[in-house]
Amino acid sequence: MNGLMMQQPLLISSLIVHAERHHGDQEVVSRRVEGDIHRCTYRELAARSRRMANALAALGVKPGERVATLAWNGHRHMELYYAVSGSGAVLHTLNPRLHPDQVVYIADHAEDQVLFFDLTFLPLVEAVASRLKTVKRFVAMTDRAHLPTSSKLPDLLCYEDLCAAQTNRFDWPEFDENSASSLCYTSGTTGNPKGVLYSHRSTLLHTLAAAMPDALNCSAADTVLPVVPMFHVNAWGLPYIACMVGAKLVFPGPGLDGKSLYELFESERVTLSAGVPTVWQGLLGYVEANGLKFSTMRRSVIGGSACPPAMIKLFNESYDVHVLHAWGMTEMSPIGTVASFKGKHGAQSQQERYAVMAKQGRAIYGVDMRIVGEDGADLPWDGKASGEMLVRGPWIVASYFKGEGGDPLVVKGEKGWFPTGDVAMIDADGYMQITDRSKDVIKSGGEWIGSIDIENIAMAHPKVAMAACIAAFHPKWDERPLLVVVKKPGVELTRDELLAFFEGKIAKWWTPDDVVFAEAIPLGATGKMLKNRLREQFKDHKLPTA
Ligand code: AMP
User: Fold this and answer.
1) What is the atom index within ligand 1 of the atom nearest the CA of 441?
2) In angstroms, what CA-CA distances link 17 with 46, 118, 227, 235?
3) Alpha-helical regions (H) of 333-427
4) How are beta strands 27-31 and 248-251 bridged, if at all?
């Protein structure tokens, strides 16, 4: 027997409709590339999203087609979040920090039709435009007064002109909730970046769960400033969550340094923020150096990399800011776990509470997790056994875009669980703590660096016999690449000579921080480099600081 309830598809457009109707005068504040602070309400933002939905139709964008952005966090980017997905097309948020070759690869792979970009990224867009196979139109996200007059881009369009030319009457279409809504690429552990294609349903379910009190704990009383970029897994869902709960939103644009962020936190009375540890380090450095305090900020969500326990303590004791340590990944929309307390922690000592906060947290409803050993058998939740973490749930990837990389859900012969590549322990209360990573990637300041690309370049050097690139600890960036090299017999090769070889071949910030020369690199039975052994060997390696 079926239930007798309404069949209403879960669509992203319903979030902006809700925000407009129930929180119409709530503000969205943006620091813009043009240098000003822009203020609008959800009512105005919703109307402009509808205008942009009409503009997309006028540009010939069809349902299912990909529309790319290269943009900071700002109101125009948010308008596109709703205009593109709400009208049935797919929003593809490109990461501007990638090397231009990777931007070209990803945009071609996604078959992006239109590319919207902030003026900051004009040089990047100009550099890649002629190589983009599918992009038909380029739109600068600015007004006519700031539109570059001598751009090399063919028929460059102006965002504000497109918006002004349309009416704000647009009926958000109703379609299957399983339709694709947005696309993010994640750096593969092997091979090319892979596309994670979210659906309206997965996004809405993630939004509901992520807003909950034991997750990001977001409400209409909050002023939320997402420092995490909108090109990193949809700013961890905050542009959707804020609409669902009616929170005020503050977008920092390109101003991610401590001073710019602090000023915005104070002037807009921000209560909740979210970002990677590196960003908080910059902010805390500025606040400490200037003897400042946060007048309204009380919660900061920290994830993307492990949050150092010292940061949790400093936030709490010196600034009365509660850190919500969270873990997730692009493939998980992204939130999987949050280290929020249970009732029993109220009676514990501060030291015990800090120990809970330093863990990556417990699963939010909707995410099921396990840890398994080498043989695929489940390991106990005793806070001691550590193994690869597998997850499943309605906002977790089932397959990569265009089926790349085979079926990601077959793990050691069993189907249906996604292998995270993170190695973790889970305690009896369900709190997970990451101990290692089985995937060979490096995460520097919240951004991935592909070890394989670095190794391939090193191996192309005529004096290198074998090279392995691993993550080494760095006090600012959390991890930086360290290159372990075996030289060819009888040759002379210096660190600087090898590092100079990387120039122009990869993004500058991907260049390894250091090189160590070794006699051999440990290999497994199948000839694969045993990077976990190398990581262990070089765990105390001191990288040169610039
Ligand atoms: P991304 O897909 O870029 O969001 O990266 C996801 C990966 O970042 C995870 O699989 C982890 O390796 C790492 N990560 C995310 N959050 C944390 C955290 N709180 N602690 C440690 N590692 C994290």
Assistant:
1) 12
2) 7, 26, 25, 20
3) 350-358
4) parallel
> What values do phi and psi take at 444, rounded to 5?
-115, 115
What pTM does this model have?
A: 0.92
Q: Is the CB of 443 under 6 A from ligand 1?
A: yes
Cβ proximity of 108 and 133 under 8 Å: yes
Catalytic residue among 69, 93, 142, 186: 186
Answer whether residue 526 shows pLDDT above 80.
Answer: no
| Ligand 1 pocket residue status of 360, Cβ below 6 Å | yes
Cβ partners under 8 Å of residue 396, min gap 6: 331, 332, 333, 367, 418
* Distance from residue 135's CA to the centre of ligand 1 (Å): 31
Beta carbons within 10 angstroms of residue 423's beta carbon: 17
pLDDT in tens, 344-372: 999 999 999 999 999 999 999 999 999 99
User: Residue 530 CB: number of other CB atoms within 10 A?
Assistant: 15
**Ligand 1 pocket test: which of 231, 329, 359, 436 has the largest number of ligand atoms within 8 Å of its C-beta?**
329
- Written as six digits, the tokens of 268 are 């807009």
192 C-alpha to ligand 1 centroid (Å): 19
Cα-to-centroid distance, 329 and ligand 1 (Å):
6
**How far, in Å, from the CA of 304 to the mean position of ligand 1?**
4
**Quick check: CB of 422 below 6 Å from ligand 1?**
yes
User: Which runs of E-coded beta strand occur in 329-477?
Assistant: 335-338, 361-363, 368-372, 386-392, 410-411, 414-415, 418-426, 431-437, 441-444, 447-450, 464-474
228 touches 235 (CB < 8 A):
yes
* Location of structure tokens 């939740």: 381
pLDDT of residue 546: 62
pLDDT beyond 80 at 191: no
- Between 187 and 290, name the one with better pLDDT: 290
70-110 confidence digits (pLDDT tens): 999 999 999 999 999 999 999 999 999 999 999 999 999 99
**Tokens 């749930």 correspond to what residue?**
393
Calculate how far, in angstroms, residue 197's C-alpha sits from the geometric centre of ligand 1: 18
Catalytic residue among 79, 331, 447, 479: 331
Exposure string of 381-415, with b = 16+ CB inside 10 Å and e = fewer, is beeeebbbbbbebebbbeebbeeeeeebbebeeee
73 lines ligand 1 (CB under 6 A): no
Q: From the CB of 306, is ligand 1 less than 6 Å away? A: yes
Pick the residue whose CA is nearest to atom 4 on ligand 1: 329
Q: Whose CA is nearest to atom 7 of ligand 1?
A: 329
Pick the residue whose CA is nearest to atom 10 on ligand 1.
329
- 217-264 confidence digits (pLDDT tens): 999 999 999 999 999 999 999 999 999 999 999 999 999 999 999 999
pLDDT confidence bin for 189, thresholds 50/70/90? low
Query: Is the pLDDT score of 525 beyond 90?
Result: no
Backbone torsions φ then ψ of 196, nearest 5 degrees: -110, 115
Rounded distance between C-alpha atoms, residue 377 and residue 495, angstroms: 43
